[in-house]
Amino acid sequence: MPEIFINGKPYQAEPDQTVLQVALANGIYVPYFCWHPQLSVAGNCRICMVEEEGRGVDIGCNMPVKAGMRILTESDEVRAHRKAILQFITLNHPVDCGICDKAGECTLQDYHYQYNGTPSISHDRKVTSTKFYDLSDRIVLDNERCIVCSRCVRFTREVSKSNGLGIEERADGSLVRPSTDGSFRDDPYSDNVVDLCPVGALLSRSFFYKARVWYLQATPSVCPGCERGCNVDIWHRKPEWFVQSLDAAENTAIARVTPRENAAVNGPWICNKGRDLARIFERKRAGQAMLKGRPVDLPNAVAEARRLLAGAARPAAVVSAWGSNEELEAFRAALGGRVTVVTRQDHVPEPGEVVEDDLLIRADKNPNSAKLRELFGNAAATLPADADLVLVWGEGFEFARIPPGAKVVLLGSYLAPENGHADVFLPISIQTERDGHYTNFQGVVSGFAACFPKAPGVADAETLFAGLAGGGP
Amino acid sequence: MKHLIPEFEALKRRLPPELDSTLVLPCLRRIQEDRGYVAEEDIDGLVEYLGVPRIQIEEVLSFYTMLRRRPIGHWHLQVCRNVSCSMRGAERLIDHLGRKLGVAPGQTTADGRFTLSTVECLGSCGTAPVVMVNERYHELQDERSLDALLEELKQP
Amino acid sequence: MTGRKVLMNFEVTPTSHTLEAYLARGGYQTIAKVLRELKPGDVTKEIVASGIQGRGGAAFPAGRKWQVVDPNDGQPHYLIANADEGEPGTFKDRWILENSPHTLLESMLIAAYALAVRNAFVYIRGEFDQPYRRLAAAVEEAYAAGYFGQGILGSGFSCDMFIFRGAGAYVCGEASSLLSSVEGTRGYPRNRPPRLTVKGLFQRPTVVNNVETLSNLSWIMQHGAEEYRKVGTAKSPGTRLISISGHIERPGVYEVEMGYSWAKFIYGVCGGVPNGRKLKAVIPGGISSQVLTGPDAKIMTPEEVESLTLDHDALWQMGSSMGSGGMIVIAEGTCMVRLLQVMLRFYHHESCGQCTPCREGMGWAHRVIDRIVAGQGRPEDIATLRYISKFNDGTTICGLGDAAGYATVAFLDHFRDEFEYYIEHKRSKYDGRLECLPEAAHA
After folding, report:
1. Does residue A115 form part of some domain?
2. What are the pLDDT digits (tens) for B64-113?
3. Do C391 and A84 touch (CB under 8 A)?
4. Residue numbers in C near B59 (CB within 8 A)
């Protein structure tokens, strides 16, 4: 284990590490644009320069450790070089901060203030280039802001393997461009380049001009799009920045979804489906309890459901793989002994959706099949033909499969025609409105936290079950 | 480009077996020599033949100055304007050709016969000024020799 | 000075490049001897002993480069002759390719044997036409005669040769960029480590040598390292092919023994500056080497006894270098501001764009000099050019940025008054022409 010295202090290193890795691992921050722990070393931005005593400055991301080497990360030479590199990077960089979505989370902004902060010494016009370039229908590229760090290109070569992006032309006319065979458009991981981009060159169309990032907060969550359960951050407005005169729906909207790094599950990536969680969670919500379509208040509906359940001789339940660990445990505790459970994977791959790949995407498009199997076994049997009450918990279940004459108690979150046909309809919360956990296909448990309040009249399923069983409210 | 594949297969005989992507540049050069430029269907064919990503071919086509994705004039007049050639009058000759042909560097005559370009050092500094016409070097040029050359090239 | 010639030691005729002519002057006997009598390690030892320095521009001792490669490591190795010859002012490798391609090929066989190379390449710049055709014809002749292919000359040594034509990129003359090109991608240079001799072409140990460097090998193996060291100087053995152009009476390629008097070369061999003009400056080794004024190099007249000699140490001591051997002579009255403009335009055009200082810096420097030449210069422009040059020195992936910086600073150091004049008066101190014409050109 070679020992190296950084700013006079000794640090243990692995023999195959670089100076940059050792520095970062020990809390010594060295700036970098093009380096990324999950990508190959490009060594093109040149800002991670460090000084080796007696040998001058060189980039740290490609500097192998050698026992006894003495590194300085804040010497005058290093600082002068950082300033110069920033001078070069900002030479043609448009001062778009006022209209750039990346403002507030932009590495270039941060470094400019930390390491340079002086105006450009150039008196020449900046090189202009394409702005608002459709890299795909999901991503906008601004070539003027691009610092040609090649992170996006390396991502498509090494991680998603779509080979969707490349760099064309030369010199300061270099342009990130997509392959004309559509492989970037078809790359289900394309949006990760937005996170990777250290500046505002690659932006998500769905987030374009939506909100300033400092108005938003990130709440940890789990993508329910498949049984991988990638950890995500759901971004939404901070209470102190709630809009007053604009549409109040802004205050409870998902502004964007980004990966939340979890080495055991998804690393720092998610697929595009995870970015589009608003498509799932912001469908029209069911907010009104009903008895055969007739609106009633929630306690009444719960009481009726309890009455029907108590009176059923052969009750059955369809339990969804979208239930959280807490909900499923609560269900089993309250009703598991009382009803015949049939499990269901609510969501199946949609036409055109990637079914499974060797990166993140799994064929089971439900977040909690593992917990379902653990609690209720593997059998996704059919409903007993003589069931006289079916509690349906989840969405998309075909009512035609309900034995004729059986009563239906439906727990659902979204507006659907079936809601009005059920004997009792109880609107329940979705994952963004409560805390909970899912178990992924490898047994890893990940947690999500509430982002938004429930609407009045909507219940948490896990507190409902005890009430339905007859004990509790 | 399919008709060129037998030639490409012959090239492989002098390369170690794993080095298929080495053929990208040689194949593109040959395709351009054959067609005059590299067309979209040539790229498709090459992607299939070599098994390299399409973006790699597109990057290469944009990086190297001698490769093009669009046809140009029948005669490509490439005048070096680097140091030694400029010191021997290249700038004068560029102006001269521009006036004679009625085009600026980078443009093609209306009849599609001549494209005028300025290029960087061709490695012919001792016989400057040099004009490269398609593949051939024409060295020690002056206004008179260029006028004679144009006359010759104007012949069908 | 021994006056010996290593490369230009035969009469050039319309057929002197053919296999027949090459054989007649003793060609391919050296590789035969090497294959019969020597082990690969013996060859490397001899090359190291010869002290031959690279003749592409960096002057790195070739033997030292070779020694990194272990012929017995069981991996494929590659040898590539760098015939990209893109450094402006340089056209001497072309001489070898056109007039004695077999010298290169035989030397490459010797090198391939020493380095356990099964597949050798010549990377030739895409624009070269006759040099390519002659080289290609020579390769076919060599194959037909059994000098390439399986079991060469009845030995266990096999070697294939592939001529790889470039497609227009100066940066591909840089060894790692050359490899990127051969691998079928954009000519992006690579960071070191790893050295190319450890991980080069397709991550295999690879030796890239300049055409002229390699072409010396057959003479060295024929006559021995000791003989070679008698030629030239102690620190710079051998000869150098110098391409001379610009304002010179007899431009062309000459073989000059290292240590030869520069003044004698310019005036005695090459005829001096035409049209009765005085010498102003010389760029010794391609535009990426630092310009020297005539007085500083002591080459103002043919009789200058103190004239700088043509060897590496003499030029390094003057803050310049022999570089690629592409010498450009500049006559009095030439506008150095305009000349730098041509050079910066070139570097901007050729920057690959991979790393920040060069990508942004070359364009920046080009725009500044264009503005100066257009009469819109500002006093701080000289400091800006120095800033760009300083922060391209040692900060880039390859030497293009550094070279542009060195060249720029040398111009600013030696001809500061011209730049200041242009900025202040919005026009050249001279008439702005770059040609050396009969009439006096002082403004």
Report:
1. no
2. 999 999 999 999 999 999 999 999 999 999 999 999 999 999 999 999 99
3. yes
4. 185-186
